Amino acid sequence: MSSDRDERVVRPTEEDEVAAGGSELIGGPAGRRALPGGWRAAALVIALVMTGMFALGMVQKLPCYNHGWFFGATTQYTHACYSDIPHLFSGRGFDQGLIPYFDRVPQSAGDMDYLEYPVLTGLFMEVAALLTPGGDSLQAREQYNWIANAGLLMVCAVITVICVARVHRRRPWDALPVALAPALALTATINWDLFAVALTAGALLMWSRSRPVAAGVLIGLAGAAKLYPLLLLVPLLVLCLRAGRLRQFLTALAAGAGAWLVVNLPVMLSWSGGGFHIRPGWAKFYTFSQERPVDYGSVWLLISQRTGDPLGNVNTYVAVVMILGTLAIAALALYAPRRPRLAQLAFLTVALFVLANKVYSPQYVLWLVPLAALARPRWRDFLVWQGCEVLYFLGIWYYLAYSGSGDKRQGLPLEGYQLALVLHLLGTLYLCALVVRDILAPHHDVVRLDGSDDPSGGVLDGAPDIVTLPAVRDARPMGEPEDEAVHQWAGSGGTR
Known about the structure:
- The protein is mostly helical and 496 residues long.
- The protein has one domain (3-26, 36-492).
- 60% of the residues lie in helices and 2% in strands.
- It is built from 22 helices and 2 strands.
- The protein has helices at 3-7, 17-22, 39-60, 62-68, 75-78, 84-91, 119-130, 138-167, 176-180, 182-187, 193-208, 212-223, 233-243, 246-268, 280-291, 299-307, 314-335, 342-356, 365-375, 379-403, 414-440, 484-492; strands at 269-272, 275-278.
- Strand 1 and strand 2 (275-278) form a beta hairpin.
- The chain is globular, with a radius of gyration of 23 Å.
């Protein structure tokens, strides 16, 4: 690849008609005489946009901050400003100085006797609790705690977009959709998912720089904050197998396992009766995940509501779908005429988990936003998907308001909620279908229109194929444009 291509930053207005049209709000696309600008300028602008959008998301929670979390069960739903943070500050004993995983939570938590989050998320919550001033009423302390958490989560959001901006050296502006994602702004302070998202984005950045140890460590740490980042090991394994880079995968795997153990073992094990035992507080996240029934947002809830079957064997159904889906993704990666990009397979794998899981909380969209922007950096499709997610975000809260409003029936009835749920499922499947099409027909992949292979692939970028399925024929050398039309498009700077 030429050095000019490595140095020149791709502007979204050069290749995306929606981005070009949207740029008219700020003066239109950059002209030929505009200063080229580099990744630092792009990262600075994207970080500022992310900060602004995050702040708007905080403003959207203002009705709940003032009264909705405290003085009415349905107010936080009718204003769509619910957050777990203030409820769990007192509900899990942080207001009393209890230590997560070691101390039992108050009786008011019902059957939740310990904190039901992975270790690093518990540490995040504990740090925010330590930053929360004491001495005021419980309501004031819950407000302060939400502010402390929001400040830390804003840092995570900025780290996320900067990492995404640096994953593709020439395409920092691919992170702008992440910063502008309305679903991110709306869900950023519902829970603590952005912490794991930031660690995952850092792992992708480290892998793109051919640093498997650092990438593995960050994947392990992210997996100690949320379960989904561990799924990235699946596409890494398949792609490294196809490229003959298993040593780098095993290096990342060992580093990830070591990092996960370092942060989990001190909390996991306790000594009693002359031996080590698994501490029940540490195990709560895993037992809760196993035991929880079908819940909001999942396709299984839709099936259960429509058929009246409680789906008592849902764990088996989820396992079967995940195994079959993972095998299909692996087959796709080995069958494709060109090795898929890491971001494409990572998005499909996490999307499979989102679609197959027995619960879909609104903030789970945060897991997919950075991966979607890297897998398919096309504004139209990203915004279509985001529109579906925003509608689901509103649908779940208005349905909960309807369910809890008694005779007033204020909110969205069951049929309306089911429609919102279907839109969420269809929106995610729509984006998945486009990514699969890009994999099977690489000339549709905007990242590869200039002949690039996998700018975020690190050691995979430009590597020859070693293991493929027999059906693969006539795969072009890495870096070669698909056809003359694509070559002319890449040189013209036109839109497609």
